[in-house]
Amino acid sequence: MKQVIIRTDASTKIGSGHVMRCLTIAKNLKKHNVTVQFWMEELPGHLIAYVQQEGFETITSPKKADLYIIDHYTIDAEWERGLRGFTEKIVVIDDLANRPHDCELIIDQNVIPNFDSRYDVLVPKQCIQLLGPKYLIMRDEFIEARQNLKSRNMQGERLLVFMGGSDPTDETRKVLRALHQFKGYFSHIDVVVGSGNIHKAEIEQICLEQGYHFHCQINYMARLMQQADFSIGAGGSTTWERCYVGLPSSSTIVADNQTLTTNYANQLGAVLNLGWHENVSTTTYRNLLSKLKNGEVDLNQISKVGLDLTENTQPNPWIEEIMELLT
Questions:
Q1: For residue 147, what pLDDT is reported?
Q2: Are 89 and 326 in contact (CB under 8 A)?
Protein backbone atom coordinates (compact mmCIF):
# COMPACT_ATOMS: atom_id res chain seq x y z
CA MET A 1 0.00 0.00 0.00
CA LYS A 2 1.33 3.44 -0.97
CA GLN A 3 2.12 5.95 1.79
CA VAL A 4 1.47 9.71 1.51
CA ILE A 5 2.27 12.37 4.10
CA ILE A 6 0.55 15.75 3.98
CA ARG A 7 2.42 18.68 5.52
CA THR A 8 0.00 21.43 6.48
CA ASP A 9 -1.18 23.47 9.45
CA ALA A 10 -4.16 25.28 10.89
CA SER A 11 -4.22 27.95 13.57
CA THR A 12 -6.25 30.87 14.83
CA LYS A 13 -3.94 33.09 12.78
CA ILE A 14 -3.72 31.24 9.45
CA GLY A 15 -7.19 29.72 9.59
CA SER A 16 -8.41 26.23 8.69
CA GLY A 17 -8.54 26.38 4.88
CA HIS A 18 -5.27 24.54 4.24
CA VAL A 19 -6.26 21.62 6.44
CA MET A 20 -9.81 21.42 5.07
CA ARG A 21 -8.73 21.18 1.45
CA CYS A 22 -6.00 18.70 2.37
CA LEU A 23 -8.64 16.54 4.04
CA THR A 24 -10.48 16.49 0.71
CA ILE A 25 -7.31 15.30 -1.00
CA ALA A 26 -6.67 12.73 1.74
CA LYS A 27 -10.16 11.26 1.47
CA ASN A 28 -9.82 10.94 -2.29
CA LEU A 29 -6.48 9.18 -1.86
CA LYS A 30 -8.02 6.86 0.73
CA LYS A 31 -10.62 5.78 -1.85
CA HIS A 32 -7.66 4.64 -3.97
CA ASN A 33 -6.28 2.53 -1.08
CA VAL A 34 -3.52 5.02 -0.24
CA THR A 35 -2.48 5.42 3.41
CA VAL A 36 -2.35 9.10 4.42
CA GLN A 37 -0.85 10.76 7.48
CA PHE A 38 -0.86 14.47 8.36
CA TRP A 39 2.28 16.20 9.61
CA MET A 40 1.02 19.15 11.66
CA GLU A 41 2.34 21.46 14.35
CA GLU A 42 0.48 22.07 17.61
CA LEU A 43 -0.27 25.73 16.98
CA PRO A 44 -3.16 27.55 18.71
CA GLY A 45 -6.29 26.29 16.93
CA HIS A 46 -4.35 23.46 15.22
CA LEU A 47 -7.27 21.09 14.29
CA ILE A 48 -5.14 18.00 14.94
CA ALA A 49 -7.95 16.34 16.89
CA TYR A 50 -10.38 17.11 14.05
CA VAL A 51 -8.07 15.49 11.48
CA GLN A 52 -7.85 12.43 13.71
CA GLN A 53 -11.64 12.33 14.04
CA GLU A 54 -11.82 12.34 10.25
CA GLY A 55 -9.83 9.08 10.31
CA PHE A 56 -6.22 10.12 9.71
CA GLU A 57 -3.13 9.65 11.86
CA THR A 58 -1.01 12.70 12.64
CA ILE A 59 2.75 12.96 13.05
CA THR A 60 5.08 15.73 14.19
CA SER A 61 8.28 14.92 12.25
CA PRO A 62 9.22 13.62 8.80
CA LYS A 63 9.35 9.94 7.87
CA LYS A 64 9.80 7.92 4.70
CA ALA A 65 6.86 8.04 2.28
CA ASP A 66 6.13 7.42 -1.39
CA LEU A 67 4.93 11.00 -1.78
CA TYR A 68 4.64 14.22 0.22
CA ILE A 69 1.91 16.81 -0.31
CA ILE A 70 2.73 20.29 1.00
CA ASP A 71 0.12 22.99 1.55
CA HIS A 72 1.88 25.71 3.52
CA TYR A 73 2.67 29.34 2.72
CA THR A 74 5.94 29.38 4.70
CA ILE A 75 7.48 26.42 2.85
CA ASP A 76 9.58 26.87 -0.31
CA ALA A 77 12.06 25.03 -2.53
CA GLU A 78 14.86 25.01 0.04
CA TRP A 79 12.68 23.27 2.63
CA GLU A 80 11.29 20.92 -0.02
CA ARG A 81 14.78 19.90 -1.10
CA GLY A 82 15.42 18.93 2.49
CA LEU A 83 12.63 16.35 2.17
CA ARG A 84 14.36 14.47 -0.63
CA GLY A 85 15.91 12.09 1.88
CA PHE A 86 12.39 11.00 2.83
CA THR A 87 10.61 10.91 -0.54
CA GLU A 88 11.21 11.04 -4.30
CA LYS A 89 7.90 12.71 -5.12
CA ILE A 90 6.52 16.05 -3.89
CA VAL A 91 3.20 17.74 -4.67
CA VAL A 92 2.67 21.39 -3.72
CA ILE A 93 -0.67 23.14 -3.19
CA ASP A 94 -0.27 26.91 -3.52
CA ASP A 95 -2.24 30.11 -4.11
CA LEU A 96 0.45 32.76 -4.04
CA ALA A 97 3.07 32.08 -6.74
CA ASN A 98 5.50 34.16 -4.68
CA ARG A 99 8.34 31.67 -4.08
CA PRO A 100 10.14 28.83 -5.89
CA HIS A 101 9.22 25.17 -5.35
CA ASP A 102 11.07 21.90 -5.81
CA CYS A 103 8.23 19.55 -6.76
CA GLU A 104 6.94 17.13 -9.37
CA LEU A 105 3.42 18.58 -9.42
CA ILE A 106 1.82 21.88 -8.34
CA ILE A 107 -1.87 22.68 -7.92
CA ASP A 108 -3.30 26.20 -7.77
CA GLN A 109 -7.07 26.28 -8.20
CA ASN A 110 -7.44 30.06 -8.22
CA VAL A 111 -8.71 32.26 -11.02
CA ILE A 112 -6.51 35.30 -11.59
CA PRO A 113 -5.13 37.04 -14.68
CA ASN A 114 -2.48 34.87 -16.43
CA PHE A 115 -3.06 32.04 -13.96
CA ASP A 116 -1.78 29.50 -16.49
CA SER A 117 1.75 30.92 -16.68
CA ARG A 118 2.58 32.44 -13.31
CA TYR A 119 4.54 29.41 -12.03
CA ASP A 120 6.71 29.00 -15.13
CA VAL A 121 9.81 30.47 -13.46
CA LEU A 122 9.03 29.09 -9.98
CA VAL A 123 8.98 25.32 -10.56
CA PRO A 124 11.26 22.89 -12.43
CA LYS A 125 10.61 22.61 -16.17
CA GLN A 126 9.42 19.02 -15.83
CA CYS A 127 6.93 19.92 -13.08
CA ILE A 128 3.28 19.20 -13.94
CA GLN A 129 1.21 22.38 -13.43
CA LEU A 130 -2.49 21.97 -12.64
CA LEU A 131 -3.75 25.55 -12.60
CA GLY A 132 -7.10 27.31 -12.58
CA PRO A 133 -10.72 26.44 -11.77
CA LYS A 134 -10.61 23.15 -13.68
CA TYR A 135 -8.58 21.84 -10.75
CA LEU A 136 -10.79 22.99 -7.89
CA ILE A 137 -10.34 20.87 -4.77
CA MET A 138 -13.94 20.01 -3.95
CA ARG A 139 -15.38 17.84 -1.21
CA ASP A 140 -17.89 15.18 -2.24
CA GLU A 141 -20.73 17.15 -0.65
CA PHE A 142 -20.07 20.07 -3.02
CA ILE A 143 -19.85 17.82 -6.07
CA GLU A 144 -23.20 16.29 -5.15
CA ALA A 145 -24.68 19.75 -4.55
CA ARG A 146 -23.46 20.89 -7.99
CA GLN A 147 -25.09 17.87 -9.60
CA ASN A 148 -28.38 18.61 -7.81
CA LEU A 149 -28.66 22.39 -8.04
CA LYS A 150 -31.87 23.84 -6.69
CA SER A 151 -33.59 27.08 -7.65
CA ARG A 152 -33.00 29.91 -5.21
CA ASN A 153 -35.17 32.73 -3.95
CA MET A 154 -33.48 35.61 -5.75
CA GLN A 155 -34.86 38.06 -3.17
CA GLY A 156 -32.06 36.89 -0.86
CA GLU A 157 -34.27 36.07 2.11
CA ARG A 158 -32.27 33.11 3.41
CA LEU A 159 -28.81 34.20 4.54
CA LEU A 160 -25.61 32.28 5.28
CA VAL A 161 -22.80 33.93 7.27
CA PHE A 162 -19.40 32.21 7.24
CA MET A 163 -16.23 34.27 7.59
CA GLY A 164 -13.72 31.41 7.68
CA GLY A 165 -12.89 28.83 10.30
CA SER A 166 -11.00 31.06 12.72
CA ASP A 167 -12.26 34.49 11.54
CA PRO A 168 -9.14 36.26 12.88
CA THR A 169 -10.44 39.72 11.94
CA ASP A 170 -13.74 39.23 13.80
CA GLU A 171 -16.00 39.77 10.79
CA THR A 172 -18.81 37.58 12.14
CA ARG A 173 -19.58 39.88 15.03
CA LYS A 174 -19.57 42.89 12.68
CA VAL A 175 -22.20 41.14 10.56
CA LEU A 176 -24.28 40.22 13.60
CA ARG A 177 -24.31 43.84 14.73
CA ALA A 178 -25.43 44.89 11.25
CA LEU A 179 -28.24 42.33 11.25
CA HIS A 180 -29.94 43.98 14.24
CA GLN A 181 -31.59 46.51 11.93
CA PHE A 182 -32.99 43.84 9.60
CA LYS A 183 -34.98 41.76 12.02
CA GLY A 184 -37.89 40.12 10.26
CA TYR A 185 -36.59 40.54 6.70
CA PHE A 186 -34.52 37.37 6.48
CA SER A 187 -36.63 34.24 6.85
CA HIS A 188 -33.67 32.11 8.01
CA ILE A 189 -30.12 32.99 9.03
CA ASP A 190 -27.32 30.40 9.38
CA VAL A 191 -24.15 31.50 11.16
CA VAL A 192 -21.15 29.17 10.83
CA VAL A 193 -17.88 29.33 12.78
CA GLY A 194 -14.92 27.01 13.15
CA SER A 195 -13.64 25.60 16.41
CA GLY A 196 -10.70 28.03 16.15
CA ASN A 197 -12.94 31.12 16.41
CA ILE A 198 -12.09 32.69 19.77
CA HIS A 199 -15.46 34.46 19.91
CA LYS A 200 -17.57 31.38 19.19
CA ALA A 201 -19.26 31.27 22.62
CA GLU A 202 -20.40 34.89 22.33
CA ILE A 203 -21.53 34.35 18.75
CA GLU A 204 -23.53 31.30 19.79
CA GLN A 205 -25.22 33.32 22.55
CA ILE A 206 -26.14 36.13 20.12
CA CYS A 207 -27.60 33.57 17.71
CA LEU A 208 -29.63 32.03 20.51
CA GLU A 209 -31.02 35.42 21.55
CA GLN A 210 -31.80 36.53 17.98
CA GLY A 211 -33.20 33.25 16.67
CA TYR A 212 -30.36 32.62 14.23
CA HIS A 213 -29.11 29.08 13.54
CA PHE A 214 -25.59 28.55 14.94
CA HIS A 215 -23.19 25.92 13.53
CA CYS A 216 -19.64 25.12 14.69
CA GLN A 217 -16.98 23.07 12.82
CA ILE A 218 -19.47 21.38 10.53
CA ASN A 219 -19.22 18.85 7.71
CA TYR A 220 -22.42 19.89 5.91
CA MET A 221 -21.44 23.29 4.53
CA ALA A 222 -22.56 22.40 1.00
CA ARG A 223 -26.08 21.74 2.26
CA LEU A 224 -26.23 25.14 3.93
CA MET A 225 -24.90 26.77 0.76
CA GLN A 226 -27.50 24.89 -1.28
CA GLN A 227 -30.30 26.19 0.93
CA ALA A 228 -29.09 29.80 1.15
CA ASP A 229 -30.06 32.64 -1.20
CA PHE A 230 -27.02 34.79 -0.36
CA SER A 231 -23.85 34.39 1.67
CA ILE A 232 -21.72 36.92 3.48
CA GLY A 233 -18.25 35.42 3.45
CA ALA A 234 -14.52 35.91 3.37
CA GLY A 235 -12.10 35.54 0.49
CA GLY A 236 -10.08 32.38 0.03
CA SER A 237 -11.07 28.88 -1.05
CA THR A 238 -14.67 29.20 0.19
CA THR A 239 -15.19 31.83 -2.50
CA TRP A 240 -14.87 29.09 -5.13
CA GLU A 241 -17.06 26.73 -3.11
CA ARG A 242 -19.83 29.32 -3.16
CA CYS A 243 -19.35 29.87 -6.89
CA TYR A 244 -19.33 26.11 -7.50
CA VAL A 245 -22.84 25.69 -6.10
CA GLY A 246 -24.11 28.95 -7.63
CA LEU A 247 -24.48 30.80 -4.33
CA PRO A 248 -24.33 34.61 -4.77
CA SER A 249 -22.09 36.12 -2.13
CA SER A 250 -19.95 38.95 -0.86
CA SER A 251 -16.30 38.53 0.08
CA THR A 252 -14.30 40.43 2.63
CA ILE A 253 -10.54 40.23 2.18
CA VAL A 254 -9.16 39.04 5.52
CA ALA A 255 -5.62 38.06 4.44
CA ASP A 256 -3.08 39.38 1.94
CA ASN A 257 -3.16 36.19 -0.13
CA GLN A 258 -6.89 36.73 -0.85
CA THR A 259 -6.51 40.16 -2.46
CA LEU A 260 -5.69 39.20 -6.05
CA THR A 261 -8.28 36.44 -6.39
CA THR A 262 -11.08 38.39 -4.67
CA ASN A 263 -10.47 41.48 -6.80
CA TYR A 264 -10.50 39.39 -9.97
CA ALA A 265 -13.61 37.42 -8.95
CA ASN A 266 -15.32 40.77 -8.35
CA GLN A 267 -14.13 42.07 -11.73
CA LEU A 268 -15.63 39.01 -13.42
CA GLY A 269 -18.91 39.50 -11.55
CA ALA A 270 -18.70 36.26 -9.55
CA VAL A 271 -18.70 37.93 -6.13
CA LEU A 272 -19.26 41.30 -4.46
CA ASN A 273 -15.91 42.43 -3.07
CA LEU A 274 -16.41 44.49 0.10
CA GLY A 275 -12.68 45.22 0.37
CA TRP A 276 -9.91 44.91 2.92
CA HIS A 277 -11.20 43.95 6.37
CA GLU A 278 -9.77 47.04 8.11
CA ASN A 279 -11.92 49.18 5.84
CA VAL A 280 -15.01 47.00 6.27
CA SER A 281 -17.19 47.98 9.22
CA THR A 282 -20.60 47.14 10.62
CA THR A 283 -21.88 50.00 8.44
CA THR A 284 -20.42 48.30 5.35
CA TYR A 285 -22.36 45.13 6.12
CA ARG A 286 -25.46 47.16 6.97
CA ASN A 287 -25.29 48.84 3.55
CA LEU A 288 -24.91 45.45 1.86
CA LEU A 289 -27.94 44.07 3.71
CA SER A 290 -29.94 47.15 2.74
CA LYS A 291 -29.10 46.61 -0.94
CA LEU A 292 -30.21 43.00 -0.65
CA LYS A 293 -33.47 44.03 0.97
CA ASN A 294 -34.15 46.67 -1.69
CA GLY A 295 -33.37 44.32 -4.58
CA GLU A 296 -30.36 46.33 -5.72
CA VAL A 297 -28.14 43.26 -6.22
CA ASP A 298 -28.59 41.03 -9.29
CA LEU A 299 -28.30 37.71 -7.47
CA ASN A 300 -29.20 35.68 -10.53
CA GLN A 301 -26.32 37.16 -12.55
CA ILE A 302 -23.77 36.59 -9.76
CA SER A 303 -24.94 32.98 -9.47
CA LYS A 304 -24.66 32.39 -13.22
CA VAL A 305 -21.15 33.85 -13.46
CA GLY A 306 -19.97 31.73 -10.54
CA LEU A 307 -21.38 28.55 -12.06
CA ASP A 308 -19.89 29.29 -15.48
CA LEU A 309 -16.50 30.12 -14.00
CA THR A 310 -16.26 26.84 -12.09
CA GLU A 311 -17.63 24.57 -14.79
CA ASN A 312 -15.66 21.37 -15.28
CA THR A 313 -16.52 18.11 -16.99
CA GLN A 314 -14.80 15.94 -14.39
CA PRO A 315 -14.70 16.94 -10.69
CA ASN A 316 -11.31 16.73 -8.96
CA PRO A 317 -9.22 15.67 -11.99
CA TRP A 318 -6.08 16.29 -9.93
CA ILE A 319 -6.54 12.92 -8.18
CA GLU A 320 -5.60 11.06 -11.37
CA GLU A 321 -2.39 13.08 -11.70
CA ILE A 322 -1.41 12.37 -8.09
CA MET A 323 -2.15 8.67 -8.50
CA GLU A 324 -0.02 8.64 -11.64
CA LEU A 325 2.92 9.92 -9.57
CA LEU A 326 2.36 7.07 -7.13
CA THR A 327 2.59 4.33 -9.77
A1: 92
A2: yes
In tens, the pLDDT along 24-49 reads 999 999 999 999 999 999 999 999 99
The stretch 147-160 carries a mean pLDDT of 86
Angle between helices 200-210 and 171-179 (to 10 degrees): 20
Contacts of 76 by beta carbon, 8 Å cutoff, 6+ apart: 99, 100, 101
State how far the Cα of 179 lies from the Cα of 173, in Å rounded to an integer. Answer: 10
Mark whether 237 and 254 lie in a shared domain.
yes
Do 184 and 318 share a structural domain? no
pLDDT higher than threshold 90 for residue 151 = no
Alpha carbons 76 and 282: distance in angstroms, whole number: 38
Name the pTM for this structure: 0.90
Residues in CB range of 78: below 8 A, 6 or more apart: none
Q: Give the mean pLDDT of the chain.
A: 95
Query: What is the average pLDDT across 99-109?
Result: 98
Q: Rounded mean pLDDT of 215-233? A: 96
Contact predicate 230/248, CB 8 Å: yes
Q: What distance in Å separates the CA atoms of residue 86 and residue 90, rounded to the nearest whole number?
A: 10
From residue 280, give the alpha-carbon distance in Å to each of 174, 206, 240: 9, 21, 21
Neighbouring C-beta atoms of residue 93, cutoff 10 Å = 23
pLDDT, position 270: 97
255 and 164 share one domain: yes
How many domains does the chain contain in total?
2
Same domain, 97 and 238: no
User: Residue 91 sits in which domain range?
Assistant: 3-136+312-326
Question: Are residues 117 and 164 part of one domain?
Answer: no
Edge to edge, the sheet with strand 67-71 lists 57-59, 35-39, 3-8, 67-71, 90-93, 105-108, 128-131
Phi, psi of 192, rounded to the nearest 5 degrees = -115, 135
Assess whether 204 and 255 both reside in one domain: yes
